[in-house]
Write a structure and sequence with these properties.
Helix content: under 10%
Oligomer: single chain
Strand order of the largest sheet: 1-2-9-4-7
Distance between the termini: 33 Å
Order of helices and strands: EHEEEEEEEEEEEE
Largest sheet: 5 strands, antiparallel
Structural class: mainly beta
Radius of gyration: 15 Å
Number of strands: 13
Number of helices: 1
Length: about 160
Amino acid sequence: MEKVHVEDVAGQMSAADVRRPVSKALGTEDMAINYYELAPGDSFAFGYHAHDDQEEVFYIQSGTATFETEDGDVVVEAGEAIHFARGEFQRGVNEGDDRVVALALGAPRDTENVEMYRDCPECGERTQNEIEMVGDKEALVTICSDCGAETGRFH
């Protein structure tokens, strides 16, 4: 048995204001658990994406998150949860004025096959992107796979 207080889990760089990898602190083997706090405009993910090998559930504890999906936007409010199957594209964003607090659960824990898209200013359209660490672990950047342009920078 392992027990942790979420506030004791060290944060990591993310598209969100706060992301704490709770599963690492608990030592889970088969499930990813991440605690998030999204300031207005923040997102759970670096881009519109799908995991070919992982399903995800987001439980919104407070605030309201809007998920971009293949079927259109879905609003998820405090006390609600949303499930995404393997291969299902999504991106959750805080489009409101209040902070969003949420838990994200993924199974299996480790995922390798992620397909992610972001708007590329150079290409003028949404393109596939990769994530790279820059400097001495000072930031994560998203890079357009088509032209190599930086499409986002996260600290």
